[in-house]
Amino acid sequence: MSVRELVVLGTASQVPTRHRNHNGYLLRWDGEGILFDPGEGTQRQMLRAGVAAHDLNRICVTHFHGDHSLGLAGVIQRINLDRVPHEITAHYPRSGKRFFDRLRYATAYRETVGLTEVPVDADGVLATTPAYTFEARRLSHPVESFGYRLVEPDGRRMLPERLAAHGIKGPDVGRIQRDGSLGGVPLEAVSEVRPGQRFAFVMDTRLCEGVHALAEGCDLLVIESTFLGEDEPLAVEHGHLTAGQAARVARDAGVRHLVLTHFSQRYTGPEEFERQARAAGFDGELTVAYDLLRVPVPKRR
After folding, report:
1. Which residues are catalytic?
2. Count H helices, E strands: the chain?
3. Percent of the chain, pLDDT > 90?
4. Average pLDDT score, the chain
5. Is the per-residue pLDDT at 1 higher than 80?
6. Quick one: which of 141, 187, 190, 277 has the fewest CB in 10 Å?
7. Residues contacting 268, CB < 8 A, separation 6+
């Protein structure tokens, strides 16, 4: 059974708190698992969330601040300890390769698993598979940072009433899907475009072109909202977003489900993040993330 969901492993910015671990997010996309920004403690959070090293296919780091990357050492060593039977791909800003290398080989261990490094240099496509295209966009932060976006190809939805009108049924439905036409009836006459699903992951950044490009048309957008509106000058200074800014991005991009995360330890409760996001005009589905939460990707349009 295919599963498409976000598993939230940690939601704190800069330092963990009693209730929030450092960052960590796993996207389950059918049979694949994409781990984003494994901060310190991610390996233990995976255990608590029921996520195994075998579930991972890609590891993506937005930038090399510790709350987004210090868990790499433990996760990579666990992958090798568990002898994951498939190759794993790692994406990260090429400018931070020295940090990735230090974390990958932080201590002695036996390498048993192929880990392919595909660093990010600029905006563009990182991978194309039959199931999705995986892209990166540059963000605006004091150190080089990239966000990630997964786009499923558009498909087609068969329309029973049109099939019936043309007398197409049983095995002929599969034939027209495969061949593009049947008995002079084109596929377009009995079906419609089914938009592919879109997911984006946007961490530490000021407002910039990359944020809007990543968010455009997303079914599920995971985005940092480190600060509340009254602290916007701090957000700009340190390269972050407020809850209101993140919500306006989602509103303008037509996002269906917005997940706010990466909260400063100066705030004690989530209620004001939701209030400010709604006040900014976002009226879609909204989640203020907490550790070990599971968020399903919305059903197809």
Report:
1. 67
2. 10, 18
3. 97
4. 96
5. no
6. 187
7. none
Say which residue the tokens 């976000």 belong to. 6
How far is residue 283 from each of residues 94, 129, 222, 280, 298, measured CA to CA in Å?
37, 33, 16, 9, 15
- Sign of the dihedral defined by the CA atoms of residues 243, 248, 253, 255, in that order: positive
Residue 113, class by beta-carbon neighbours within 10 Å (0-12 exposed, 13-18 middle, 19+ buried)? middle
Q: What is the pLDDT of residues 30-76, one digit of tens each?
A: 999 999 999 999 999 999 999 999 999 999 999 999 999 999 999 99
Residue 169: Cβ within 10 Å count: 10
User: Alpha-carbon distance 257 to 250, whole Å?
Assistant: 9
The residue to which tokens 């090399």 are assigned:
64
Give the distance, in angstroms, between the CA of residue 51 and the centroid of all CA atoms in the same chain.
16
Which burial class, exposed, middle or buried, applies to 154 when counting CB atoms under 10 A from its CB (0-12, 13-18, 19+)? exposed
Return the structure tokens found at 298.
Answer: 């919305």
Residues whose CB is less than 8 angstroms from the CB of residue 202 and which lie 6 or more positions away in sequence, other chains included: 139, 147, 211, 214, 215, 221, 222, 223, 224
What would the two tokens of residue 52 be? 């195994």
Distance (Å, whole) CA 168 – CA 172: 6
Q: For residue 83, is it left (φ>0), alpha (ψ between -120 and 50) or beta?
A: left
Q: Provide the 3-class DSSP secondary structure of residue 281.
A: coil
Phi, psi of 110 (to 5 degrees): -95, 120
